[in-house]
Structures are given as C-alpha cells and as structure tokens.
Amino acid sequence: MADAALALETVDLSKSFGGLRAVQNVSLQLAQGQLHAVIGPNGAGKSTFVNLLTGQLRPTKGTILLAGQDITGTPSHRMPHLGVARSFQRTNILKSLSVLENVRLAAQALHPLGLRVLRSPRHGAELVDVARRALERVGLTGVEQSAAGILSHGAQRQIEIAMTLVGDPKVILLDEPLAGMGQEEGERMAELLKSLARERALLLIEHDMDFVFAVADRMTVLVDGTVLATGAPAAVRADKAVQTAYLGEHV
Amino acid sequence: MSEPARMLPQGKAGWALLAAIAVVLALLPPYVPSYYVGLITLAMIGAMLALSLHLLVGGVGLVSLGHGAFYGLAAYVVFLMSPEGSPKPIWLTLPAAMLVSGTVAFVVGGLSLRTKGFFFLMVTLAFGQMIFFVFHDTKLGGGTDGAYLAKPIISAFGATLDPRSFPRSQRGFPAYYVALVQLILTYLALAWLLRSMFGRVLEGIRVNEHRMEAMGFSVMRYKLAAFTLAGAFAGAAGHMWALHSGFVNPELVSWHKSAEALLMILIGGIGSLAGAVLGAFAFTALGEIAQQVTERKLLAEGVVILVAVLLLRNGLMGIRLGRGKTKGPGGGHG
Q: How large is the ipTM?
C-alpha cells in the first residue's frame, strides 16, 4: 500500500482546543483510487480531522502532504484550487439559491474569469455546462431551477457532492454524506461513491457501519482523537481493540 | 426562482415603471416651486448614498456604521480642491472624490472586514469617527461650523453651465439634473453589478459565507471589493451634496449619516435596489413633513420610522397593491 501513489497524507496531525485534545498524532495515508473511511464514536474527532485537512482549522502540530507537497496551513479557500474538495456534515448549501446556481457558483470559484466576472452569468456558459454535468453525474436532474432548500434531504446531499465535483478534484472529503438519507438513496450514493473513487481518492466519514463495510477499501478507526486501528475493513472488523472500544454493540 | 430577481426590478414592468419615474423627475422642475426642486435634489442625493450602502447591506449582508464617512469625505475633497472663489470643473472633482473615498474605503475595509457582525459594526463606527475628527474643528476641515466652497463647474463639450446665469427661480436646476443623471447611472451600475457573476458571489456570501469560502472563493477579497466600490459610490453622492449645497460641515462625515442611510434602506426594503431609492425619498419627505407639523422633528421621525419598520417587514417595497396589506404611515409620502 505504501508504494501506491499517495494522494493525501497526514503526519502526526494534532489539534487542541484549550485543554481538549480533539485530534492527536493522527497519521493517515490516502492513496489514489482508494475509498478510505474514517469511523469512530461521536466526539472521536472525525469532523475536526476533516476540518484540519481542508484548512477550516489550523493544526496545532503535524503536517499535511498533498501528493508529497506540504500544504499545512493553506487557507480553506485555496484548497479546492489545489484539487481538494469537501462536503459538510450538516448539509451546507446556499438554500435560497437555485440548485443550478449552487453548483454553478462552485464551478465559478475555480474558474479564473478575469473581467468577465462583471458580465452576467449568460456570458459564462461553460460554467453552466460544468454545473449541469456535475448534477447529471450525481443523478440529480430536472430540478435545476428549484430553490435548493426546498428539496429533500437526500437531494441536498447530492447537490453537495455535485458541488465538490465541479473542479474535477483529486481528493474528495465527504463528512457523513449519508446523514438523513433513506435506504434507496443510500444505495445510490454507495454506487456513486464507488465510481468516484475509481478516478480519485475519497475520504469518507460515516456512521453507518453497513455502508462503510460495503464501500470502503480501507478504514481508520478514531477514538478520543487518536487512531485505534487502520487497515482493510475485514482486518479492522477482526481487531480486538476496535471491537471492545467501539464496534462491540454494532457487530 | 433564482434569488437575484428579488434584488432588482421585477421584469420589464419594473424597469418600465422606473423609466417612467425617471421621465417624471426629468420633467418636474419647471412645474414645482424652486424649494421643492432643492428638496428633490436632496432626496436624489440621499438615494445615491442609500444605493451605495445597499451594495453592502443588501448585496453582501454587511452592516456598516462608517459608510457616512466616505460620503462626507468626498464632500471635503471638493472643498479642498475647489475652495471658495476658485471653482474646479466637475470632471476633475467627481473622479477625485470617488477615488479618495474608494481608496480610504479600501484601507478601512481591509482592516475592518476581518471582524464580523457586531464587531464589524463597532470597528466601522470607530473608523468613521476617526475620519470625522480629521475634519471636525480642524484647520483642514475649515472649522466646526463648516465652510463654503466653490461649486464645481458643470461643463461638457466646451459649453459651461453656470447656475448664476439662470433666473433666481431656476438656479437649482443644474444641480437637480446632474443629480438625476448621477442617480440613474448609479442605479444602472449597481443593477449591473448585482446581476453579474461578481454580484452572484456577493449574494452567495450573504447567504452562506462559510460555504463560499469552502467552495474556493476568497470571501475577504470579494467583501473588500464590494466595500471599496460602495465607498466610491458613496463618494459620488457626497460630491453631489457639495455640488448642490456649496457647503460642507463635519456633520456630513458623522455616523448619523450612516444611520440615516441605513434607515433609508430599512424603510424602503432591504431586499431591493429600488427600495433604497424609495426609502430615501420617503425619508426625505418624512423629515420635511415632520419639520412642518411639529417642533420635535426627530421625535416625530423616530415614531413614524418605528411604526413603519414594525408594520412593514419588507419596507415600502413590500407593499403589494390589492393584497390589502397595511399601508405604512410613511407610505403615503413616498
């Protein structure tokens, strides 16, 4: 595994909030073409970890390497430009804007427009095309002009994923993409994530164990901010420490 | 469904109505007493200031208490460039006023936009007061009571318009028409800006700043651009005030001016560009009426504004004829 092209790597990544050590010495390797799930109980530091990776939070210690390059401390708005896109745990879209506009804006963020930014969106047709393709990719069509906030929870998660796809990122970080989704929607999401992972590296944070074991190539268990185990799903499932600390009641 | 439609006149009917209002304003001066020509000029200047502030409040969701400072600053630029007795042409003073206000806004914005919400309000207030004290009771500002200036000369194509060559009753006309043209241009420029892809980003920031940042937008840069532009447009309004009145005083730079402009867009309706204009006219009319009917102008104003804001959630623009909604007390005068 270590020889495979590493898309993203963290070395001893740590974050403290005052006395609280939310993330401690987490070293994680995310390979190209891999779907890597991070699981752990509530408060294990999973979301904090993602927020560190995408610059929403600054690590107290440790480094983040993107394709071997140190990108620690890069501001969050630069990350999508480097090819690292993310979704959020709580659906985080522009609810009063149309579905298409949400995704179009995400595309605009990564397109240098120069002075064309002063023209109406009609003069940026290629952005609309990119947005439409991303919406098609996630299977959300026919609702382009609806206000994003009135759609079902599942559809809003799809919008989020579409927004991460517009820049054709090398790394996608998804924070609980299944939260609030129904069975059928979940299955479609699983298919989508698997197909996405073929071309890039996917880091997934998820509570739904069945889903994780079904889609992940590799997984890491976080407990109290530290890595308890990491490896192939079967190995992690068999791990004694994991079973007692976390999976006990689920598996 | 898409949001920007709300910010702008609704469709062709809205634009037609605005054009009709502009035509009425253009034809009005010969038919009304000169006092009202001056009053409408003031309302138009207020509308320009309110429009510039709308770019921040309605466009990006930034409430600033330092906006009046850029307005007053521009008036003082005219005072310094065009002192009593030696008037300068408008094509020199207007760009200079906008440039100075815009530049100062750029610096103030760069320092204050790092804060948010209440803190942003306080920091902009503090910067506004700093600019106020540059002109208050200083030699540079011409003193506490203000000072006269030479109104910039209005000239184009080699022809110069001198208000003094007009009969007394028509001396307010040139300023009136310059204000009208500037108001129309400001409106069109802002409508253009809010509609553009730049405007879409501002709107996204207003709706969900955090998400825009995560998408890859440098929110700070867009906010700073909007703050700078709003400052420059406020400068155009302040320049127009100097051109109209031929007088500056420190009150122009004070935070009350910012509060006035905020009230205008609040009365008119925060969600729309036309609301800023409507609000400015209503505010000016309200001040005038309050002055005539009572000695306690500010008290009367305050009560009416309070009632209007409580009853009209979306300001005057929120009133839809035929739906039988309560008509606000300020509505009749708009």
A: 0.88
Structure confidence by residue, pLDDT tens digits, A8-53: 999 999 999 988 889 999 999 999 899 999 988 888 888 999 999 9
Q: How many domains does chain B have?
A: 1
Instruction: Answer whether B216 sits within 8 Å of A106, measured CB to CB.
Output: yes
Laid out side by side, the sheet with A218-223 consists of: A84-86, A171-175, A201-205, A35-39, A218-223, A226-231
Q: Is residue B133 domain-resident?
A: yes
Q: Could you tell me if residue B334 is inside a domain?
A: no
Nearest to A109 among B196, B210, B217 (CB): B217
Q: B1 to chain A: which residues are within 8 Å by CB?
A: 98, 145-147
Quickly count: other Cβ atoms within 10 Å of residue B145's Cβ.
8
Domain that holds residue B99: 36-254
Tokens of A233: 């799903």
Reported pTM: 0.89
Q: Is residue B273 part of a domain?
A: no
At B290 the pLDDT is 87
Q: How far apart are the first and last CA of chain A?
A: 27
Q: How many CB pairs under 8 A join A and B?
A: 88
The H or E element containing residue A153 is: helix A153-165
Question: Is the residue at B223 inside a domain?
Answer: yes
Question: Which residues of chain A neighbour B196 with C-beta distances below 8 Å?
Answer: 117-120
- Lowest average pLDDT, out of A15-29, A234-248, B197-211, goes to A234-248
